[in-house]
Each structure stands twice: as C-alpha cells, then as structure tokens.
C-alpha cells in the first residue's frame, strides 16, 4: 500500500501520545517503531507520568527513544484531569494518534482542530466506550460518544470495539482492529524455560504437594477486580479440597484485602508484583487462573500458560474479555460465589474437561500475538495516510 508523504520530507511522520507508558507496552512500541521504519514511516512516542493514584500500581515503563513530557494534573471530584504538553518539534506530524480518554484535556485541541494544519490526520486508539463505567448512559459516556466521529481513523482494541464504533456511525473503512495483545513470545519463552525444580520450589513455598490444586490470580489489586469474591470462593474450594492453595500476584490500592486474608489463612499467599522468569514460574506452578473481576490483557497470560481462566459476566471487563469463549478456553459464570465456586470445582473434578480447556487456551496464545497487533497497527497507519483526512461537517 502506498503511503502519502508530504513534499520536502523523505518519509511520513506519525506521533502516538500516551499520558503514561505502561511497562507491558514497551515491547509493542519498540516493534512498532521498527515495523514503521521498514515501511518508510518515522514513529515517535510522546508520554508523560502516572498520577499519584496510578503510581500505586507500579506498572510504569520507559523507552530511551521516547519524548517524555511533564504532565500536569488537576483532581476534580475524584478524577485526575490531565494536561500533557506536546513537543513543538513534532507539530508537523502527518498523523497524531490519541488515546481515547475524556480526562486527557490536551486531546481536545486536536479533536476540535485548533491549530491542526490542512491535511494533518488525527486518530483515536481506544475501546469506543468506557466498558467499566458505572453509568454507561451518563454524561461522561455521552461526551465520549460525541467525539467518536471527530477523528480521521480509529485503532480499535477488538472486534467488539469495531461494532461499537459502527453503531455510532463511524465508517467501517476507517477502522483498524488491532486484537490488543501483549508480548506473548517473551512470556512463552519464559514459561518454556521454567524448570521442574523452579516449579516445585514455588509449590513448596505455598505448602502444596504435587497433587494439590493451585489457583492463581495475577493483576492489579483494586475494587473492580472483585477480590472479595475471589477470596470467598477460594474459602469454599479449600473446604472441599483442603490441599488447595491460592497465590496472588500483583499490587495496588486493595492490597490489604489480600494481605489481611493471608494473615489468617496459611493457604493464601501474596507474592507482590512478579515479572519475567519469576512470574512464569508461578504460572507453571498453578492449575487455574482465578479472576472474578475485570478481565483485560491478563487473559493472554492465561492462554500462554494453558491455564483455564474463570471470570464473571457481571464484572466491568476490558474489551479483551471477548477472547474468552466460555466452555472452550475458559469460563464466564454468574456473578456470585456459588456459581464461581461451582465452576472451579467442576474443573478440578473433571480432568478431561480441564485438559480440553487447557488445550484451547494454549491454541489461542498463538492467535492473539504482539506480532499480529503490530502488523494491524502499521497497516492502519498506512491506510490512514493513504486515505487522507476525513471531511468534517
């Protein structure tokens, strides 16, 4: 596909803005930059810092080639509004890709075309909706929908995002579905490198013998993750299977919910944030991935490890929950302790079902990959540059 390049510059310039850089996006941006260069496109990344509340998640990354700006925050009714300066040297970008968030005030000049030069493209990268909103028909979501059609192109997280955008009247031929992913290749390599000795050490640390079932939770710790339901269900599973152990990986504002439970339940263990080889060893030591609350990219961790993930239908999920096909590569059950516990006990009591679910999860680890996401993103960049700016009403 040919790329439109402005006169006087050898190649097109594309800028992606992020109010903060997440550690799990580092590999993506590195690969995307390389892929863009291979097609004659210069990619620049502009990012700032997390808010004080976000910093508690300890999920910040860094890239030596990124343009780092100093964010300004204003807290209003529990929401951190963000102004992120934009580098003057990148004002001539052919395409600027913005993250779709109401609270990023610095997006609005781009969306309202204040100072945007003729022919310059502006795109959104997002979900289309706040899928975790407690008021999906409230003012904030109506405000977000109003800006859906203010851009020239959309980089949609999943097919479900495409459906949302089309229902809002955005043209299908200006949407790129990314199939949002993380660095599966690296995690698969880490998993393959785990030795029987390392696996045994993790299980020994939990007090689990070789035949004991181990449930694992991995992710940020905050209310939408439904840690209360996780622990209540784990209590019931432990009553049926006394050898059952639960390991919790991650950190966040709800950490005390887990640590207080672990203080009186020796079969629960919190191990904090784990990455790389250490994280992979815990996944190899587990039999189930228990995530009753909001599911996002960690569904791909479960697939990589071939672990059945169990979540609930009532949680405020991210778009990646679309990858979870209940009964095939995991389970989505009713939002109550009895239903959740029932799914866990069903899997533990049916080795054949467990094997089928694990096999399907393993297959899908090769379907939703970072390589595919990078390819889809670069294709979308070329499509946007070739198609040009969208006529505005």
Briefly say what this structure is:
This protein is an alpha/beta fold. It is built from 14 helices and 15 strands. 41% of the residues are buried.
Envelope shape: elongated
Number of DSSP helical runs: 14
Q: Over all CA atoms, what is the radius of gyration?
A: 22 Å
**What's the arrangement of strands in the largest beta sheet?**
3-2-1-6-7-8-9
What is the total tally of β strands? Answer: 15
The CATH homologous superfamily of the largest domain corresponds to: Glycogen Phosphorylase B
Q: How many distinct folded domains?
A: 2
CATH topology of the largest domain: Rossmann fold
Per CATH, which architecture of the largest domain? 3-Layer(aba) Sandwich
H/E element string?
Answer: EHEHEEEEHEHEHEHHEHEHEHEHEEHHH
Between the first and last Cα atoms, what is the distance in angstroms? 28 Å
Strand content: 15-25%
Assign the structural class, choosing from mainly alpha, mainly beta, alpha/beta, alpha+beta, or little secondary structure.
Answer: alpha/beta
Give the helix level as a range of percent.
25-40%
Provide mean pLDDT, rounded. Answer: 92
Low-confidence stretches: 1-8
CATH class of the largest domain: Alpha Beta
Largest sheet: 7 strands, parallel
């Amino acid at each position: 596909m040919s790329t439109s390049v402005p006169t006087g510059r050898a190649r097109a310039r594309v800028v992606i803005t992020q109010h903060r850089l997440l550690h799990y996006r580092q590999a993506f941006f590195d690969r995307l930059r390389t892929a863009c260069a291979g097609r004659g496109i210069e990619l620049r990344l502009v990012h700032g810092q997390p808010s004080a509340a976000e910093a508690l998640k300890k999920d910040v990354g860094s890239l030596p080639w990124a343009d780092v700006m100093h964010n300004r925050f204003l807290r209003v009714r529990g929401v951190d509004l963000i102004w992120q300066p934009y580098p003057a040297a990148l004002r001539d970008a052919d395409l600027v890709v913005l993250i779709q968030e109401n609270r990023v005030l610095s997006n609005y000049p781009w969306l309202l075309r204040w100072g945007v030069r003729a022919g310059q493209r502006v795109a959104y990268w997002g979900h289309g909706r706040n899928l975790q909103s407690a008021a999906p028909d409230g003012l904030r979501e109506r405000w977000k929908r109003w800006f859906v059609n203010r851009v020239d192109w959309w980089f949609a997280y999943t097919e479900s995002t495409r459906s949302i955008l089309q229902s809002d009247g955005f043209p299908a031929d200006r949407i790129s579905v990314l199939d949002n992913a993380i660095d599966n290749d690296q995690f698969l390599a880490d998993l393959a490198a785990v030795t029987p000795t390392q696996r045994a050490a993790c299980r020994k640390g939990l007090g689990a013998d070789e035949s004991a079932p181990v449930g694992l939770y991995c992710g940020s710790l905050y209310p939408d993750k439904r840690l209360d339901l996780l622990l209540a269900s784990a209590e019931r599973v432990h009553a049926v299977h006394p050898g059952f152990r639960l390991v919790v990986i991650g950190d966040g504002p709800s950490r005390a919910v887990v640590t207080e439970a672990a203080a009186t339940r020796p079969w629960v263990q919190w191990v904090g944030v784990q990455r790389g080889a250490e994280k992979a060893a815990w996944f190899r030591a587990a039999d189930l991935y228990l995530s009753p609350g909001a599911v996002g990219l960690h569904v791909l961790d479960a697939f990589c490890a071939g672990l059945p993930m169990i979540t609930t239908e009532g949680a405020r999920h991210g778009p990646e929950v679309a990858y979870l096909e209940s009964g095939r590569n995991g389970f989505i059950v009713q939002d109550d302790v009895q239903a959740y516990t029932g799914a866990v006990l069903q899997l533990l009591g049916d080795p054949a079902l467990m094997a089928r679910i694990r096999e399907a999860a393993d297959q899908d680890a090769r379907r939703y990959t970072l390589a595919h996401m990078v390819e889809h993103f670069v294709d979308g960049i070329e499509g946007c540059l070739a198609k040009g700016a969208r006529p505005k009403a």
